[in-house]
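I have been asked to look over a protein record a colleague put together. Alongside the sequence sits a line of tokens, each denoting a local backbone shape. Please read both lines and tell me whether the tokens look consistent with the sequence. Take the sequence as given and treat only the tokens as open to question. I have pasted the whole thing underneath without changing anything:
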Amino acid sequence: MSSMRGRHVDSLTAYKRAGSREHTDSYDKEEDSVRWLNGKDIGHPSWKHSLRNVLVAALSSFLFGYHLGVVNETLESISLDLGFSGSTMAEDNLSNGEFSQSSSKYMSRRCFCWVSVQWLDCSGVGRRRAFQLCALPMIIGASMSATTTSLWGMLLGRLFAGTGMGLGPPVAALYVAEVSPASVRGTFGSLTQIATCLGLMCALFVGIPSKQTVGWWRICFWLSVLPAAVLALFMEFSAESPHWLFKRGRGTEAEAEFEKLLGVTHVKYAIAELSKSSRGDESDTPKFSDMLYGRHFKVIFIGSTLFALQQLSGINAVFYFSSTVFKSFGVPSDLANTCVGLANLLGSVLAMILMDKLGRKALLLGSFSGMAVSMGLQVIAASSFASKSGSIYLSLGGMRLFVLTISVGAGPVPSLLL
């Protein structure tokens, strides 16, 4: 390691904090030139080294999906056991314990979570510790929800779990982008979306017995403690982000992590790329004003708008109340949840396959276009132009198409762009 330290001392001492745009641009530069070093073709880094770290990080996305759907099937039995059955307001508050359907409340909480992530980054906590801090409130919240005997106890538990869930996805998106080879970064980024789908489907299927088995909903909450504990434990043995280490001036440790993630052959190039992206004047250090009207305004505006459109689309309402909607048309809830879950999973798999082939922009255009078509089907179903049977097929088909298309692009892409 001492020879490696000497080999890169010039690039390490040249380090200065880079702006977010330059940091992102360095990822794209790796894509085009990673195969060449000193005139020799060294090939792409192996994706196998970083895969296990990505899978551990994806547990936070799995938990996000699980808690998103855990009250879908269990809401009725929870309301009966805790004594608020028939109270629409109480059921709505419980369903939205993590993420309020109110757009203003949701966006405020989302902004708080992003600010918290930035604070964790600047305070020297690091990506691994940030994951562990995300897992802690999810463990506490799930335990409180599983043992409570009142509505207020349930809401407080959901608040704790929601805090961890809000912190998890942005940390996961950042971590996956920083530990993945450029050639598979889009694919690995889509794995977090697939993990969310699997978590959602798991919650829906696990909750099916809740209507026949008294107290089963408590087991559903207890089950979420296990992956949260695994996330906290396995992160202790996962690689730290070399980008974060380099940004903190810990170049030798960054080299060691790059060696684990990319292989010895690619360490020198990776460090050189980080050093190249960090060169510049002290004036290049990003300021808060840059996000409002400076050089970072455009990327911040586009990313924030995509996140806003993602949430204003109403996808959370579909996940929370799909069982109720399908039941109103005489479709069993377990079949309904299976259809929604499979559509979500299929879209995420397509995104993983196409992300690095078609690009982010093409997926976003296709995704939002498909969402518009699905909403058009819903409008036709609610109009007088469709027959009773036709309105059923159009409404249910439009809902599944909406889930499919949002999971192809509007779901996974925004977090990859920022």
Summary: The mean pLDDT is 76.
